[in-house]
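Entry — protein

Goal — fold tokens:
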Amino acid sequence: MEPSTPSIAPRNTRFLILIAALSVAIPAAVAVLYLLPKGGRLAGIDVTFLPKLNAILNSLTTLALLAGFYFIKRGRVAAHRAAMLTAFVLSSLFLVSYVIYHAAATHTVYGGQGVLRPIYFFLLITHILLAAAVVPLVLMALYYAFTAQFAKHRRLNRWTFPIWLYVAVTGVLVYLLIAPYYPWNLGR
């Protein structure tokens, strides 16, 4: 006889369905932003500060991820949990800010030339692809942690942590490379 298995299984299934739905919906919503025409949807709202805010949020996410890694390597589970939840909240705030910015702002074209141009596009493309891929990984890592499936949590985080860290760091680098080409920085 398996005590409590029947009551836990439906709850787990609901969480897994939610994770799967979010893993599809979030990247799809971001992709749709690029397809919709710009202008008018958030008329009158100044969003020019959001790219810098996004870079700050990504920088803070990087620090939280590194702190979480540091803490878990030293067996400080409570501090690890706090750091990782902080990273998750910061990444979530980034996502909201990113969606608002791209719903309102016009597309900025990268104007750099020479060796920086292919570096920028490499960073941008890998950042975008891995940002979409990291969504289900982070959500599953949180699920495993909250359901005390620590062996699965550790196994998954061998992939999740470096990808999430890469996405956070490259988000800042992409901002630094494109910032000079924002219309408000060009005097347009």
Q: What stands out?
A: Confidence is low (pLDDT under 50) at residues 1-8. The CA atoms of residues 57 and 92 lie 9 Å apart.
